[in-house]
Design a protein that fits this description.
By secondary structure, the chain is α+β, with helices and mostly antiparallel strands. It is 37% helix and 28% strand.
């Protein structure tokens, strides 16, 4: 297979697995590394002084296309994480080459047995139209995976599509101090249904404390109302967080938690405990 196809397969798998951007870059690089034993490959041309002697010594698709070599490198990721991503990228390269006409000696030098998938007529020839089709498919998967990733992953996408409150809660808990809104429908305890957008202040056990965008009171879910439909809307902002020992007076609006419940504090109010807000300034009293 060509380098572009190997990269497309590896990156699409990495995206679907939720790898971070740095990990994706290392996986993409790892997907090219096994072809160092071929001077005319994408990576072989770049590192020709190394690739040529490797090709003469080991031959193409020999030890450099073995499961054990790259499996050991991936295990070395327990010591240094980049090794894991590079090893996984290289392993995906070897697996993909098992679907080509030539196959690979995936356990070389212990055995020269060829590892292949499918019968010969189904296998891919490097540079063929069939391989180009594979490149297009995995390129499209990588693009789709990127779109899913931008939404926060498969779970977040499902939550957005279905409006499931449970998925929204799970995704919110992964955001840490990231400032988030939630859009959806609330059913109040008196039966009234309200549709809107609320700022999430924080978790309260299995529930949430919310504030209307222009409101001054907090809504406690599910004590006062519960979601019929909810979609998480993360922002690029992050809360400042302070843990106060004793009491203090806040100089700006902020939020503080007491006995598992969030409260809002205006300028000059007394606060204590865990405090979040923007530009927190507290004077000890």
């Amino acid at each position: 297979m060509t380098g572009a196809t190997h990269v497309a397969i590896a990156v699409s798998c990495g995206i679907m697995a939720g790898c971070p951007n740095t990990g994706l870059a290392l996986i993409a690089g790892g997907a090219l590394v096994p072809d160092l034993d071929h001077p005319q490959s994408t990576i072989g041309r770049i590192f020709f002084p190394l690739s040529l002697p490797l090709s003469q010594w080991l031959g193409h698709r020999g030890p450099f296309h073995s499961f054990w070599l790259w499996g050991l490198l991936a295990l070395a990721g327990l010591i240094w994480k980049p090794f894991f991503f590079i090893g996984i990228g290289a392993l995906l390269h070897v697996v993909a080459d098992c679907a080509t006409v030539s196959g690979v000696r995936a356990m070389s030098p212990w055995t020269n047995k060829l590892f292949v998938f499918f019968k010969r007529s189904w296998r891919l020839k490097t540079g063929s139209g069939a391989e180009f089709g594979v490149l297009l498919v995995f390129g499209a998967l990588a693009w789709a995976g990127g779109q899913v990733g931008s939404m926060g992953g498969i779970s977040a996408m499902l939550g957005y599509l279905t409006g499931a409150p449970k998925i929204m809660m799970e995704e919110y808990k992964l955001k840490g101090l990231q400032k988030c809104f939630v859009e959806g429908k609330l059913r109040w305890n008196n039966g009234r249904i309200e549709e809107g957008r609320w700022l999430i202040i924080g978790s309260e056990g299995s529930g949430l404390a919310l504030q209307e965008e222009w409101g001054e009171k907090l809504i406690h879910v599910p004590k006062q109302a519960y979601f019929i439909r909810a979609r998480l809307k993360p922002t690029e902002e992050k809360w400042e967080a302070v843990k106060l020992k004793g009491w203090g007076k806040t100089e700006h609006t902020c939020y503080f938690m007491d006995t598992g419940k969030w409260y809002i504090a205006q300028e000059g109010d007394v606060v204590w405990g865990n405090i979040i807000g923007k530009d927190i300034v507290v004077t000890n009293i």
